[in-house]
């Protein structure tokens, strides 16, 4: 049972990061391999500006880190355990009920 405020804050931060589909795509892409922002933007089919905003959010949440790479910056998951956590969450949700969506979640006040 979670009782420590910091544990709850960490999970809430992780949940906020996962609440956006593009941030989920970024995390899954970085789970596969570190990437430079320009390459990541091209691979995900989004503008570099939009990606930059999401990378900043993920960095602020402590989920990704930027690593100097010559004159460029590479992004990667802050900890390899995050990749395992993403896999575990994805498979747990699919195992529970893979055909469900949260399309009406906002109306119900759960998200």
Automatic annotation (TrEMBL):
One Pfam family, short name: HTH_5
GO molecular function: cadmium ion sensor activity; DNA binding; DNA-binding transcription factor activity; lead ion binding
InterPro entries recorded: ArsR-like_HTH (IPR011991), HTH_ArsR_DNA-bd_dom (IPR001845), HTH_Metal-responsive_Reg (IPR052543), WH-like_DNA-bd_sf (IPR036388), WH_DNA-bd_sf (IPR036390)
SMART domains the record matches: HTH_ARSR
Family annotation (PROSITE patterns): HTH_ARSR_2
UniProt KW DNA-binding keyword: yes
Domain HTH arsR-type: 3-100
Keyword list, A-Z: Cadmium, DNA-binding, Metal-binding, Transcription, Transcription regulation
SUPFAM superfamilies the UniProt entry points to: Winged helix' DNA-binding domain (SSF46785)
Domain of life: Bacteria
Stored CDD domains: HTH_ARSR
Coiled coil residues, start to end: none
GO terms classed as biological process: response to cadmium ion; response to lead ion
Role of this protein: Metal-responsive transcriptional repressor for the cmt operon. Binding of cadmium or lead causes the repressor to dissociate from the DNA.
Subunit: Homodimer.
The protein's name in its UniProt record: HTH-type transcriptional regulator CmtR
Organism field: Streptomyces calvus
């Amino acid at each position: 049972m979670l009782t420590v405020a910091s544990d709850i804050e960490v999970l809430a931060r992780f949940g906020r990061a996962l609440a956006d589909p593009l941030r989920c795509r970024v995390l899954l892409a970085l789970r596969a391999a570190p990437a430079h922002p320009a390459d990541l933007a091209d691979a995900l089919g989004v503008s570099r500006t939009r990606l930059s905003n999401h990378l900043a959010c993920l960095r602020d949440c402590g989920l990704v880190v930027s690593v100097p790479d010559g004159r460029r910056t590479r992004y990667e998951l802050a900890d390899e355990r995050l990749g395992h956590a993403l896999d575990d969450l994805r498979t747990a949700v699919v195992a529970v009920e893979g055909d469900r969506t949260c399309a009406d979640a906002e109306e119900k006040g759960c998200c």
